[in-house]
Design goal:
The chain is mainly alpha-helical. It has 6 helices and 3 strands.
Length: 143
């Protein structure tokens, strides 16, 4: 930033980390003496030089904050990366469980007999059994 850089109120607030009302208060208190007010319709537009922001010690605090802010952002980024890695691992485990479930279901389906298969099996077993009611001599032997 060069010394002839001019900020409007919102830019000054963003650059210093202060609120817009705080910058207005600095202007009213005369702490930004080189700021220029220009009429802009029904409102005023302020042009605040960088040197005034530095002289009012508004930028001293900000210079130390970006390092802290960067540290916080790095911590948050690291936390998010760890969370993504954990979720990806969990996703892989769930995919494996789904695959295992599909294989188990296929195995069960091969074991399930259809109704036609059951009837065919029953009729086959019925051919080899003797018909006890058809042979009355067997009934007389039991007496």
């Amino acid at each position: 930033m060069s010394s002839d850089k001019l900020f409007n109120i919102s830019e000054a607030a963003r650059a210093t980390g202060k609120s817009i009302p705080t910058i207005h208060n600095y202007l009213k208190a005369g702490k930004l003496p080189n700021a220029i007010s220009t009429p802009n319709g029904k409102s005023k537009t302020w042009q605040i030089p960088l040197t005034d922001l530095v002289a009012a010690r508004l930028l001293d605090r900000v210079e130390s904050e970006p390092e802290g802010a960067r540290k916080v952002e790095q911590d948050e980024t690291q936390t998010l990366r760890e969370k993504v890695a954990r979720l990806e691992a969990e996703n892989e485990q769930l995919k494996e469980r789904v695959q295992d479930s599909k294989e188990f279901l296929r195995a069960l389906q091969t074991q399930i007999e259809t109704r036609a298969t059951q009837e065919a099996r029953r009729s086959w077993w019925g051919r080899n059994k003797p018909n006890l009611k058809a042979r009355p001599e067997w009934d007389s032997d039991r007496d």
